[in-house]
Amino acid sequence: MKNYRRAIVLQATLAEARRFGLLQSQRLTSAADIPDQDEYEVRVYDMKRGRRLVAAVELVSPANKDRPDNRQDFVGKCAGLLKQQVSVAIVDVVTDRRANLYFDLLELIDQTDPSIVQNLPSIYASSCRWTRSKELGRFQTWTRPLAIGSPLPTLPLWLTPDLAIPLELEATYEQACEIVSIT
Question: What's the pTM?
Answer without folding.
Answer: 0.75
